[in-house]
Amino acid sequence: MKHQWNQNLLHTFLCIWVVNYAYFQLCILLPLLISPTRSLDWDSDIITTQEEREKEENDALSKYFNATKRDVNHFPSWEKMKEIIGEFEDVAKEKLRNHDYNAMTAMLKETALTYPNITSLYSAGKSTEGRDLWVLIISDNPTTHEELEPEIKYVGNMHGNEVVGRETLLYLIDILCKNYGKNKWLTSLVDGTRMHIMPSMNPDGYERGFDGDRQGYTGRENVHGIDLNRNFPPKYPAHRERTSGLYPEAETLVVMAWLKSQPFVLSANLHGGSLVANYPYDDSESGADGIYTMSQDDKLFVEMAYRYARGHANMWKTGRRCGLSQNGDVFVNGITNGAGWYHLAGGMQDWQYRFTNSLEITVEMGCFKFPTNAMYPKLWDEHKFALLSFLALGMGGVRGIVREANGQPIGNATILINDGKPIFSTSTGEYWRILTPGQHTITVIADSYESESFTVDLALPESAEVKNVTLSSCSAPVDKQRNVYRRGRGMTRIAVIGYSPLATPALSRLLNETCAASTPTHLPAHLSLLIIPSYTSGLANTIHKFDPRAVIMVTSGAPSSVLFSPRDTHPPLFQKERLDTSLKKAIPSEGQCVNEASGTRLAQEVDTFSLHDAFSLAVSIGCEGEEDYGKRWAAVEGVVEMIGNLLSSDSVSEYSVLPSANPLDHFSPSEALLSTSASLSIFEDEQQCAHRVEHSRLRITAVGTGRPPFTLVAAIEKRTESLIYEYLTTLCNSTSVRHKELKRRGTILFLPEIPSTQQNCHDYGSIDPFRFLLQDVQSVIPALDNAIFVASGGLKIRYLDPSGNGVTKRMGEAYKKEQTLMATAEYDVCSSERNTIAGGRTMSGKETLGGMNWSEGGGVDALLVQLGCCYEERSSSGLFSENEKALTAALEARTRGFSVPKDAAMVRSKSAGQEWKERGGAVFVPLLNGEYQLEIVWKNGEKKEVTVKISDSFPLVEFHPSSSSHSLLLAALLATFIIGIGIFALRRLGYSLYRRPFSESTVGFERIPLYMSEDEDEDDVINIRAL
Ligand SMILES: [Zn+2]
């Protein structure tokens, strides 16, 4: 099983049962009376509620196969399979029992000896303790790969104590062998495929397990305590768990090599602990659970999973099963997306999907992980037809051989399918692709060859078609008349179009470089290009059909770029300024020609492509008469590569079909409101806590005095948006002294959503792309000089301190001390950049607090806080509780210093030679702890020297001019936020300070209450809140 913690409430329900029985004396009514909460045992019926019935009509299976999901010709039931297969000799009763390593080995060897014509036993490699990972091949020609015969496989017992797969695979071997030549259906399966069966991937773990273990963990992992189904190289290394290990274990390495050694087409990985067929992906991008994370082959995987489930006696049923606790596991139609259930990193099926041609699902074979011998006859009976039905899928789909015109096979050709992952031809040019019934367009692409496309139309899952493909050498264009070419095999499609005669030679060179067999290809593997060296009207439809994610129009003019598409189609990390700078550097040009890119004709032409989501831009590469084609070509190639990288680095594939996966479900309806943009207008309109800052594009909300210091708090990731909304909500609603005081000390600008928000959870090597965001805010609030960017993808803080005043570092320290997860952490626990020092267990990694710089120097002081690993199993609501105090602490640290709220023109420090000018009506001087001699220069020209002492107890000193004289009057000494004390203590401290104003004073200062409360009259002091 994947991993599930259940509370065993069996006894509770037994009690209920007994009481009910005694009371009613009507045992026959009992199941009806208590069925909704009754405990289930390992082989009980699956119980469906009305709500689950309704879900059954809205799940992925219904979405894709509504018309055929109950058609037993499409998805054969247990009964249908029994009928199709007909009579066969089943496993002898005495064999239906547990087989330990020695018994399993003996059984496999005996089979190989008894059936030498159709079996071949080999060891894929050794386990950590030296046991063989046996694989038995069953096929009509077992020792060699036959041309176009699909290689398919089963893997059992990856978790050592999940043994139903191991046993049923041994029984499967038994019936396949002894019915060969006797039963027609079974014989055709053996003849038509080459089956590789690995009954145990974790024989060491098995030997530590014990029969009768229903839901335990003894023997699950390998002998190093590593969970092999977490040990494959993960898509998101930061999602690794404690049991994942840092490096692949012996068993994992053996299996990885084995998976690469054969062109496997189809596979299932058999686990136990629940009853469901689970399909990729297992890991979600954010690392959250319950997020349906579909692969490109989602429909096919749904078909594969339901194919298995439907062939099982019970798995396919919707409802609760494995009721070892009150809840058990509920599945709709007996299948689930892996991450839609819960996420895991480093699983075998995800790795296999990403790095091999094979498509694998993971089957939970039953509620009981390690059954006793007596349980096997029933288990085998339930599974046998599902195991066979699933294998038959391997014979379906399309297969063929890719060759050159002269008949030579083309290895490593890409077989692109319009609705699935690409696969690659073997060294003998062979390919296999399982497909769902229906029509599919397949394109075959190979380096140095022109691509070929064809369609196949398949009726049933087992329908097969052979399509051999001959590719011609790549100098020939896709569309000869109009000189349209296709290059590359990747999934990121970019159209590169020459729009001026000047562009043609550069694009021809690009064509040449990306094709010619004699020169190394310059095209990154993830790109697929449509190249039109010389654009003519009438190609709009060709470009539209190519469905590019970006269109680059190459034209003449001074080196620069023009963007056509709306900003939300731009790659989030795209920077026009940087592109223009590098174009100017790359292409020496006088620019003495019309810039066609900025003309309306080109923009209108791009419109005719009807590409609503594509990132469209024009790039000017100089003027006619400037002889530098080489540089122009290099520049075009550079632009293509840069945009290709930007597009592929931040693509989003996470989506949710399950209502419970919506993070807002974790809030009550009224709370949900407070974590979304709906809260903004409430506070602005009704409570007047927040003020909307006028800006053409950004939704900026200001809270506080309207005076400096100005601090921006921006969520730069989708995941952290609700944290900012919630924080804003809390700040406005809160009656806490600390929050009130914070609002009184300056202005906080909230930017909960940004136009180019990061959809993906990832670590940030640089925050340069957000520099423009800051500039955008500064365009309306020039006094803004500090920002906090809130993201995830790590558990750490980076401070950027271009002003050198040390404030951001102090903010970072304050943040860290009050962030519940970071407080004591030395290293970023999310970081994959950890190393084991040879022989030891010492880890090194990124510190939780460190510096960072804007790459081009200068810039605004900023803090980048990363609040959680991508894999963390919680909703965004957890972020708030962990970070609320920390964010407050950082904002408090930001306001440490000396403030003159009005009438001052500037404050200067003669000794440091620094001055701080009035901004937004006030002067704020950020200061670290210490004593400072400062001079206030009033607007009327008068000056006043003051001594300011900043400490942890008095972090902010405010200075107010008297209304009657220019001599200075008061200062506000502000709340003490001694680090480490709780909010309760803070509140008490706050009140005590308020009730007992300080009467002793240092020279020239009078201390006054620290904050204003709404319900108390403060007329004895200057109203420092007056704006
Ligand atoms: Zn498992």
UniProtKB/TrEMBL annotation:
The active site consists of 364 (proton donor/acceptor)
- Pfam families, alphabetically? CarboxypepD_reg, Peptidase_M14
* SMART domains recorded: Zn_pept (SM00631)
Q: Which UniProt keywords apply?
A: Carboxypeptidase, Glycoprotein, Hydrolase, Membrane, Metal-binding, Protease, Transmembrane, Transmembrane helix, Zinc
User: Where do transmembrane segments lie in this chain?
Assistant: 12-34, 968-986
CDD domains linked: M14_CP_N-E_like (cd03858), Peptidase_M14NE-CP-C_like (cd11308)
> SUPFAM superfamilies from the entry?
Carboxypeptidase regulatory domain-like, Zn-dependent exopeptidases
> The Peptidase M14 domain covers which part of the protein?
97-394
- Annotated InterPro entries: CarboxyPept-like_regulatory, CARBOXYPEPT_ZN_1, CARBOXYPEPT_ZN_2, Peptidase_M14, Peptidase_M14_domain
GO MF term set? metallocarboxypeptidase activity; zinc ion binding
**What are the names of the required cofactors?**
Zn(2+)
Keyword Hydrolase attached:
yes
GO cellular component terms attached to this protein's record: extracellular space
The protein in question is named Peptidase M14 domain-containing protein
Name the source organism.
Answer: Pristionchus mayeri
Which lineage? Answer: Eukaryota, Metazoa, Ecdysozoa, Nematoda, Chromadorea
